[in-house]
Amino acid sequence: MMMILGQFVFQRVTVPYQQLQRSSEYRHPAQERIGQRPARQFVGPGDDTITLTGELLPEFTGGRLAFDQLRKMADSGKAWPLIEATGRMYGWWVIGSIEETSSEFMVDGLAQRIEFSMTLSHVDNPSVNDLGQQELNEYTTGTGQIASIGQMAGMIP
Questions:
Q1: CA dihedral sign of residues 98, 102, 108, 112
Q2: Torsion of CA 84, 93, 132, 150, to 10 degrees
Q3: Torsions phi, psi of 66, nearest 5?
Q4: pLDDT (tens digit, 9 = 90+) per residue, 120-153?
Q5: Dist. CA 89–CA 91, nearest whole Å
Q6: Ordered DSSP codes for 34-83
Q7: Could you tell me which residues are beta bridge partners of residue 84?
Q8: Phi/psi zone of residue 77: left (φ > 0), alpha (ψ -120 to 50 degrees), beta?
Q9: Containing H/E element for 122?
């Protein structure tokens, strides 16, 4: 296992990304001044995005079914916890885009190679309405704490 986004586990048999790129922006709007450089004031964090890219070889890794599951998650419009296999919690993220390019087709039309890119956007403190009560219950233990990565992957009861 590499990472978990909500219920989806990134691993060799699903979507093993080869590159994770994170971009964090910070807002410093300018106020024009006469005879001087513009004054800048920090007003808070801006967009925080993660782009996962990679290549699937459906004979050895995941395929279209994994992307169907990710698209279903994106269609819900909900925020999902993003947790690295090391236990690092990235926070709550929404799926902004999923792109896939299929090539090297078999006689039956099955692609032997699928290149993909997926963009996630960080959200602050999603409300229960954004998560849905069912999803919230799935990610918390009986004490209301976020479940461990092993619990979320179904490896630990």
A1: negative
A2: 0
A3: -65, -40
A4: 999 987 765 555 444 545 544 444 444 444 444 4
A5: 6
A6: TTSPPEE---EEEEEEEEEEEEE-TTTS--HHHHHHHHHHHHHT--EEEE
A7: 3
A8: left
A9: strand 111-123
Question: Which residues lie across from 105 on neighbouring strands?
Answer: 111
3-state secondary structure of 32: coil
Mean per-residue pLDDT, 103-122: 91
DSSP string, 136-157: HHHHB-TTSSBPPHHHHTTS--
Q: How far is residue 96's CA from residue 116's CA, in Å, rounded to a whole number?
A: 14
Count of C-beta atoms within a 10 Å radius of residue 94:
19
Cα distance between residue 33 and residue 49, in whole Å: 33
Q: Tell me the C-alpha distance between 130 and 118, whole Å.
A: 21
Q: Identify residue 101 by its one-letter amino acid code.
A: T
How many Å apart are CA 39 and CA 78, to the nearest integer? 38
**Which helix (DSSP H) or strand (DSSP E) does residue 130 occupy?**
helix 128-131
Q: How far is CA 54 from CA 88, 131, 132, 148, in A?
A: 21, 28, 30, 26
* One-letter identity of residue 30: A
Neighbouring C-alpha atoms within 13 Å toward the C-beta of 111: 16
